[in-house]
Amino acid sequence: MKKTAEQKSNSLKTVYLYFFIVFICIVVSLVIKGVFIIQQSKFDPAHHFTLAVTKDNKVKEIIAFNPQTPAVWVLSVDKNIPYTDLARKYGITTDGYIQVGDSVTPGSDVIGFLWSSITHTGLWRSDITLFDKIRLLLLTKNVTTNNETAEDVTLSEQSPSTDITVINALTDQEIANENISIQILNGTDIPGFGQQLGLVLSNLGANVVDIATAQKIQKKSAIAYFGNESYTLDRVDKLLQLSPTKLHQQGIADIVITIGTDKKNTTEF
After folding, report:
1. What is d(CA 139, CA 65) in angstroms, rounded to the nearest whole number?
2. In terms of domains, do 111 and 163 share one?
3. Are residues 190 and 116 in the same domain?
4. What is the CATH number of the domain that holds 222?
């Protein structure tokens, strides 16, 4: 039996409706995925961002982005330093990492590297999102040649010149401008644990005024602050993942960090 014109019309409407529903589902799925990626992004276009480039879990480069200038520093690390040792042994904390493939040799071409990281998103392991990579790429394209700095550093043989290079690259200018004083109390039985955190914060441009041993062992780490909340406080909170409490009376510093035994196995410092 031949279909009537009305039946054919209804069949076409059903097909169109099906494709329309599928299209809407795809669009909604992409929007949800996009929102999720944006929420998971780490790069704040208004603030300093430090990225580690690793290969076989060893640090090859440290790229520091300064959106305020804008400027980019590339520190080429010439020793096989494990990524997990970067903060603990050398006082360098990063906001993210990208692990490149075996056939890739990192270089000072940051734009080329970031573009490769975008095209290899499914192949190169990273803890930053595709959205982060795109924004870092756009930032780097606006950096003039005069504000691009590439240095070779030997972290395992630290010297005053190496320390200055690291500080210049890692300093978060807003932290330096706020100049908020920080006291660190080591509440563990690990000698030098406070100095390790002090080095990390100093490399970020923080004003660490005192590092001392707590009167007794503390199980839980804590951050306390006097006055108003600040970007420095937010950055320290992000690093240590603690909830700051407010002080009603100012001591020798605006921010007091107590390191407890719960941070013994941290890789952040």
Report:
1. 8
2. yes
3. no
4. 3.30.70.2390
Q: Are 88 and 165 part of one and the same domain?
A: yes
User: Are both 148 and 209 inside the same structural domain?
Assistant: no
Please list the alpha-helical segments (H only) found in the chain. Answer: 5-39, 85-90, 110-119, 130-141, 160-170, 173-178, 193-203, 231-240
How many domains is the chain built from? 2
Query: Cα 195 to the chain's mean position, in Å?
Result: 22
Q: Which residue has the tokens 């000072």?
A: 108
Q: What range does the domain containing 142 cover?
A: 49-170
Q: Which residues neighbour 254 within 8 Å (Cβ) at sequence distance 6 or greater?
A: 180, 181, 182, 225, 226, 227
- List alpha helices for 85-145, DSSP H: 85-90, 110-119, 130-141
Per-residue pLDDT of the chain (269 residues; tens, 9 = 90+): 455 666 656 676 777 777 777 777 777 766 665 555 555 578 888 899 999 999 999 999 999 999 988 999 999 998 789 999 999 899 999 999 999 987 666 667 899 999 999 999 889 999 999 999 999 999 999 999 999 999 999 888 878 888 899 999 999 999 999 999 999 999 999 999 999 999 999 999 999 999 999 999 999 999 999 999 999 999 999 999 998 999 988 889 999 999 999 998 888 88
